[in-house]
Write a structure and sequence with these properties.
Elements lengths: L4 H10 L8 E3 L2 H13 L5 E5 L12 E4 L2 H11 L3 E2 L2 E2 L3 E5 L2 E13 L4 E7 L6 H7 L4 E5 L8 H10 L6 H18 L1 E15 L5 E7 L3 E4 L21 H9 L2 E4 L4 E5 L2 H13 L6 E4 L6 H13 L5 E8 L4 H14 L6 E7 L2 H10 L3 E2 L3 H12 L7
Parallel strand pairs: 14-16, 16-17, 17-18
Antiparallel strand pairs: 1-6, 2-3, 2-6, 4-5, 7-8, 7-10, 8-9, 10-11, 10-12, 13-15
The chain binds guanosine-5'-diphosphate and manganese (II) ion.
Guanosine-5'-diphosphate binds next to strand 2, strand 7 and strand 10.
């Protein structure tokens, strides 16, 4: 799950990382009021930043400075409603504009191959790191954290020096270690600070001082671990999820959309993968992976059917149920109910074996569903129906 910059900054702040103060505004007037507060606090300019779940907002015109509350309102008005890479801007972050001395890149990412958290740092910050990786791969410094001990002080110091942050060693070490702490505290997949910036500020006596701050923040959370962090679900942005993904999540279904034409409804992840393989072997392309889970009741089956049919590319459906805890007759009832509500008619091949398969067969026959005894037969019939040569259900 991706979260907005402002929410990512809240998580960093909760882990004591240095993040400049900000407010979120949904309207131009809200941005003006927020800006007034920062100007009253001594800011010379404010920064207005589009809150959308994509990178490169700066380049797209979604990050702008303003020198007065009026200008802040104007800038916010221009940014709100803007389309950035297909995302509509609905809110902006407002903060005192930083005077940037130098921009760095620092991130912590889950390195699945190593089974460790990987820290990546670079003195080439502010720009897209993919570009740096392409042109100057040697400019990216990599260090793995220890799974038990985290990022050790010497590793963090080593990373900071290699990044050219020797002059801000203490802050850099705290931030690098803080990224790892943040990763672990929230089960994040990625915590990225770009730019991590040396900024110039007025010190306590008015003389300028330099400080290292997290100017931008991107955090993605592991969806599978959200159950361990009940508070984080509230950070989910509707734009982060396709409508079919949301419906699947709310119905408790595991659904992944694919490019093919044959909708698959299966119980169990292993059986779902096998079913997809068999569809391919029979010459077809699965339109999705869909696991209705164990013990699925009729309403869940109906929800699954709606999600499959919402994909206009689907022109045949293969239902493959191995009844264990899941009862075949429940699934059959769900299919009958779903078909009654269905807005378009698509051939459906049903194979139900296991618990209550006989009852399911009776129900399906009464409702004139097309059934198959074996999985190979079901896959072949589904592919045939998808090509429009088979008899429709
Ligand atoms: P992104 O383009 O989506 O990654 O958004 P960022 O928050 O990283 O902003 C893009 C760029 O805008 C940064 O690399 C900075 O150069 C600039 N920027 C962001 N915030 C400030 C700020 O407070 N002051 C100044 N002067 N520039 C900023
Ligand atoms: Mn950035």
């Amino acid at each position: 799950m991706k979260i907005q910059e402002a929410d990512a900054k809240s998580l960093l702040l909760a882990q004591s990382l240095p993040v400049p103060d900000w407010e979120v505004a949904h309207t131009a007037d809200g941005a003006r009021i927020a800006a007034e507060r920062f100007f009253a606090g001594g800011a010379e300019r404010v920064v207005i930043k589009a809150q959308v779940l994509v990178g490169g907002r700066g380049k797209a015109g979604g990050v702008k400075l303003a020198a007065s509350p009026d200008e802040a309102a104007q800038v916010a008005d221009a940014i709100l409603g803007m389309d950035i890479k297909g995302m509509t801007v609905r809110k902006v972050l407002v903060g005192a504009a930083a005077e940037i001395v130098k921009e760095f890149y620092l991130s912590a990412v889950l390195d699945r191959a190593e089974g460790r958290i990987l820290l990546m740092g670079s003195a080439e910050g502010g720009v897209e790191i993919e570009q740096v990786a392409l042109v100057h791969p040697e400019a990216i410094i990599r260090r793995h954290a220890d799974p038990l001990l985290g990022l050790l002080d010497y590793q963090a110091r080593d990373l900071a020096f290699a990044m050219g942050l020797g002059g801000h060693l203490k802050a850099a070490v705290a931030i690098a270690k803080g990224l790892v702490t943040t990763m672990r505290a929230y089960d994040a997949d990625l915590v990225e600070i770009n730019p991590l910036a040396i900024v110039r500020e007025a010190g306590p006596d008015g003389a300028p001082v330099e400080r290292l701050v997290c100017l931008d923040a991107k955090v993605t959370l592991d969806d599978s671990a959200l159950a361990r962090h009940p508070g984080l679900e509230a950070l989910r942005d509707p734009d982060d999820e396709a409508p079919e993904d949301r419906e699947a999540r709310e119905a408790g279904l595991t659904f992944i959309k694919l490019d093919g034409t044959i909708g698959c409804m299966v119980n169990g992840a292993g059986l779902a993968m096998t079913t997809m393989d068999l569809v391919k072997r029979a010459g077809g392309e699965p339109a999705n992976f869909l696991d209705i889970g164990g013990g699925a009741r009729a309403d869940k089956v109906a929800a699954a059917m709606r999600i499959i049919l919402d994909d206009r590319k689907v022109n045949a459906i293969l239902v493959n149920i191995f009844g264990g805890i899941t009862r075949g007759d429940e699934v059959a009832r769900g299919l009958i109910e779903a078909r009654a509500q269905q807005t378009r008619d698509v051939p459906m091949i049903v194979r139900i074996v296991g618990t209550n398969a006989a009852e399911a067969a009776v129900l399906l026959e009464q409702a004139r569903f097309q059934t198959a005894a074996s999985l190979d037969e079901a896959a072949a019939k589904a592919v045939e129906a998808s090509r429009g040569t088979g008899a429709a259900a």
